[in-house]
Amino acid sequence: MTGDPPSAVRLTAEQRIAWLRLIRSERVGPTTFRELLNHYGSAAAAVEAIPDLSRRGGAARGIRIASREDAEAELEATEAIGARIVAIGEPGYPVHLRHVDAPPPIVSILGGDEICARPAAAIVGARNASLAGRKLARRIATDLGEAGFAIISGLARGIDAAAHEASLRTGTAAVLAGGLDRIYPPEHGPLLQSIVDQGGIAVTEMPIGWAARAQDFPRRNRLISGMSLGVVVIEAARRSGSLHTARFASEQGRDVFAVPGSPLDPRAEGCNHLIREGATLITGAADVIEALGPLLDRPHAPPPRLEDPMAHGDPVPEADDSARSAIVEALSPTPTSVDEIIRETGLSPAVVQLVLLELDLAGRLTRHGGGAVSIV
User: Fold this and answer.
1) Phi, psi (5° rounding) for residue 300?
2) Which of 234, 48, 287 is nearest to 125 (CA)?
3) DSSP states of 52-102
4) pTM of the model
5) By the 8 A CB rule, do 234 and 261 touch?
6) Domains, the chain, ranges and CATH?
7) Three-class SS string for 115-151?
């Protein structure tokens, strides 16, 4: 089942500005964004609350909040290149991505909407891929495309480029680590233009003008797996970014497929390791189609509702100093689940989440996968 359900809605112009201000503010990532929205009922209210929250959390300095002018400039610059900013829950947001843990609240997309609603498979692998590896990537991408799958990859050299090139006709999405106007590697600008011209898309969670840094590529890899039903790895060294994509896929409940290779080729070490760890060994697209086929008819859960008021109109809960002390004492450098903190302290979930937000915005909290947190 594909497409956006009838319940999908659109942000108003003011909501979109507020969402941009919130996600572009300092120390606000996808999880913090969601918790702020849940707690305060709207992005606009959350933006107003950030300075006080960070102060109560013990911030050593004021937190940078994106201005209205910043948000308006980003919207204008994005639209100037023919792209758009899409919020989770809106039509056109990648259908599989919205159901991962802590999905990006907004993404910037260049190209049409059709790819975002289709079943998709990711193909990733070595940048210094062999001729045989690139040939296999093209063959698998071609066969998956003809079977109805969009192909997701990261526009990198080697396997990524081969997968994109082979799926231009059937549909492909390039996920970027930087802004839509900062293509990396630069020589793949023409390839990206071909992708968009032939009905594919470019996707990023970073703002226009953002030059990708090393730490941005894992975020890109998480989007690649999140937009897909499964990830195919073709040639990967033991410490390659492709293995990060495979790990994210496993955490997100996606299938991981790996092409085996010679033990004498360092580029096969990562794939062989994945197979030993439980990834599905494949030799062609038929193996992927057999595994992912049953997933195609599963109904999608409805997208999250946007800008919900707080349930029953309850007032925003407050935390006193004793509650803050109890929560800080329950935290440690070792990741601890939020549910465990609630049980240990006996405090309400709303109060615990509020204090965690204070610590997070003060730079004193680290969030981990699976709803765990640790003190800095």
Assistant:
1) -80, 140
2) 234
3) HHHHHTT-SSPPP---HHHHHHHHHHHHHTT-EEEETTSTTS-TTGGGSSS
4) 0.91
5) no
6) 111-295 (3.40.50.450), 318-375 (1.10.10.10)
7) HHHCCEEEEEECCCCCHHHHHHHHHHHHHHHHCCCEE
Q: 334-361, pLDDT tens digit by residue?
A: 999 999 999 999 999 999 999 999 999 9
Residue 107 β-bridge partners = 86
Nearest to 174 by CA among 146, 210, 144, 200: 200
148: left (phi over 0), alpha (psi -120 to 50) or beta: left
Greatest CA separation for the chain = 64
**Encoding tokens for residue 339?**
């549910």
Do 203 and 251 touch, CB atoms closer than 8 A? no
Chain segment 138-170, per-residue pLDDT in tens: 999 999 999 999 999 999 999 999 999 999 999
Among 200, 254, 256, which residue's Cα sits nearest to residue 226?
Answer: 254
Contact, 155 vs 164, CB < 8 A? yes
* End-to-end CA, the chain: 43
Task: Check residue 156 and report its DSSP letter.
Answer: -
Residue type, 49: A
